[in-house]
Amino acid sequence: MFKFTFFFFVFALFFSFLAEAETEEERIKFEVMAAFKSLVDASEKLDSRLYFEHFDKEKFVGLNSDGTNWNSINDLSALITDGFEAIKIINSLEFTNVNISVIDSYTAILVNEYVQSMALKSGNDMDLSGGGVQVWSKRSGEWKIVSVSASNKPSGAIR
User: Fold this and answer.
1) Range of the domain at 136
2) What confidence tier does 153 reach under pLDDT thresholds 50, 70, 90?
3) How far is CA 82 from CA 13, 19, 28, 139, in A?
4) Residues 144/134, Cβ–Cβ less than 8 Å
5) 150 vs 34: CA distance, rounded Å
6) Exposure of 111 in the CB half-sphere (CA atoms within 13 A)
7) What number is the average pLDDT over the span 65-85?
8) Which of 36, 99, 117, 134 has its CA 20 to 30 A from that of 148?
9) What integer best gives the mean pLDDT of the chain?
């Protein structure tokens, strides 16, 4: 009887740890997804100030879709700010495939694919599609992006 009770206790303890780990991972995914949705909302509003609140300005580095590095937030800032300024309105922005991989309680990687349509202030329309990788860190106490890698599908066109 003791062996059965001991086995049952160990079995129950193992599954409680497993359930707790799964719950922790789901909580992290939920938090990172909420931060990502807030980032997307800032993009749709063309609000660069709100957009950059999602970045760790001290730790950020990234890779542009043309293969060049962003070695600081300043390198990315000019691109985003000028880009937002050139857009009259976002007609649509859809993320067709978003996945989050939790590394630990302070780090998660979000990958996404997107399709976007916008009207430019120049009078042209632009369609883009591509994907990205974002590394999110909670070392500062809030989920912030510490790295981005971007890619564009070749079908992007200005009309």
Assistant:
1) 2-158
2) confident
3) 55, 46, 33, 30
4) no
5) 20
6) 5
7) 94
8) 117
9) 88
- Tokens linked to 49: 């100030």
Q: What DSSP character marks residue 121?
A: T
How many domains are contained in the chain? 1
Q: For the whole model, what pTM was predicted? A: 0.82
CA–CA distance, 147 with 136 (Å, rounded to integer): 7
Residues ≥6 apart with Cβ < 8 Å to 156 = 126, 127, 128, 129, 130
Count the alpha carbons within 13 Å of 159 in the hemisphere toward its beta carbon. Answer: 9
Q: What's the token pair of residue 156?
A: 């992007």
pLDDT of 20 reads 55
The CATH code of the domain that includes 7 is 3.10.450.50
Are 21 and 13 contacting, i.e. CB atoms less than 8 angstroms apart? no
Contacts 24+ apart (CB under 8 A), 94-100: 95/40, 97/131, 98/33, 98/36, 100/28, 100/29, 100/32, 100/33
